[in-house]
Amino acid sequence: MLAISDRFAAQCSPVIGLSNDTCGSITRASLKHLTASELDALFTPSGLFADLDAWLFHSIEMAACGVQRYAMYDWIMANADMTKARAAINPGQKVMGGPSLIQPFIIANQESVVNKDHWKVTSGWTPAAYDALNGDLATYPLTNAQIALGDVGTDRVIRVETRHGIPLDVNWFRNRDVLFLFNVSGPGVAQQGNWRVLASAVNAAASYVDLVVRSENAGSAGAFDAAPEAGYIIPGINNVHDFESWCQNRANIDPRKKVLFFYQTMREARCTDEQYELVYERLFDANPAFKEFGDIDMAKRNAQDEHNFQVNLVNAIFFQKPLPNQDKENWESLEAINTIAGSVLDPSGVTASGGQLIARRANFVGWKEQLRVCDRVKDLQKNKLNLYEFLDFNYDLVRARKTGGRKVTDIDWFCNSIFKANFYTAYIDYLDVEFKGKEVFNIEQGKVNEMGMIYDSFFFKRPSGIRINLTTDEFFDDLYDENVALGQPTVGNLLLALDIGKPSGNTGGSMYYAHIASNRREYKTADIQDLAKYDSTFRCVMEVSHKMQTLTSQAGMPIVECPLKSLWIHNFSVEPPITTGRSYPYDNLV
Length: 590
Prior knowledge:
This protein has about 600 residues and is α+β, with helices and mostly antiparallel strands. Among the domains are: about 120-255, no CATH class; about 365-510 and about 560-570, no CATH class. Helix content is about 25%, strand content about 25%. It has 15 helices and 22 strands. The strands form 7 sheets. The protein has a 6-stranded antiparallel β-barrel. A 4-stranded mixed beta sheet has the order 15-18-17-16. It has a 3-stranded antiparallel beta sheet with strand order 11-21-20.
């Protein structure tokens, strides 16, 4: 069993710890070595190693080999979940299709940002006019008895729709609740009307609510629309005395929905010789031969292999798509994974020619695809970014991330270094336009976080008080440069606001990589005694150099818990953003 010690953690630094402040900004993040007690608490919660010890051992081994630092991998793994998703998998689960088949997914909650405070009026009638239309309750859901509650002369019937996709329910508009209706008259006069709800009904398709409402505007000289047919509504409170009879539940929403998060297992294989093992054992025991070990060819090869794996894993976390039929209805038609029947032995004991069905092959689904299905991927279709539209996006992100009481002072955007440089040009133009060149700003360029990522910070009028950080990394530069070389520069231009962080309720991140399992197997060639039994050549040999085959695997998946807290913008010009206003001749940001 491995032992954790101060020198072990300090020398190899196999585990990355992250110290985010409450704002959750990468610009304020720092990487640190975990202490011996922290390592013990993480990996030996009950005195024995947890079931990710294979991953820990592999991480230590690769750190000892001098693996090249890869900032995006470090950032993702520093925020990876090691317990939450893993706890959702029951290894003994039996499902249809095979006696030991494990579903290639976990069923978890995905949270939506609920915006139930904003509504719009799309139609309006007098009670008599609505009564004349009544008869088709699917289209005009108010009953005759409900319509009769309204006064024919002064009361109104209005049709209300949600602004933000909230499920419709009559209890959003209870009897005696007051609504504030805002609109503008023809000449341009702002109007605010107060209306008390008398009755409400939802249509069959649950796409709108029809309300019988009574005016409460006679006590004020303020302008209001006496016959509203359009406008914006926010809800008020009711006015009910203690001696009156009234008890109506308000509608509530559970923002969670059940989502399938598919995971996959990834394999790495390495063959090493005995000399490597000898040096590694010395390193493991804190032997000062570490410097010499760093020059061993085998170690360099392993380090290169590990770096390639990290790069490929990050690419998959960002871009991978699901396989055909990889959904909740059709997953059992995915490719079968069976146990192996050897040429001599068949461990499954099923048949000599076929193994036992053990699983179904699935791809984990990358962050882009998860955001896309929730309309959080915006394609600018080779156009320039409009700075004011970008600032609106930031305001929406701030509001979404504040859900649940989270403090938000920073919004981080990842991009390539060329676009960040051009963003400065737009920023200077913005300051000149908004402050007429009368303000002096000190701009600090090229700040570097502890992972080596360069970032610059910007403040705008809106969202007020929010620092917008543009962070660059070679990952984004390489994507852009390679696509430029292929004549399609906008394809590689990304601007990503990713709410990456460890899941920790309302204060944690909503995007992370879930590390759910690991495995490790080592196979060694035969000892000299065994070789001599089968080959007389070895009877005159005292020692042989062994070969070791090491197989490591890990299972995991990217998670997006709340899509509204992140945004993916791509396929736009690298030129400075437009600063002349909100209007620009493009739409369909799909």
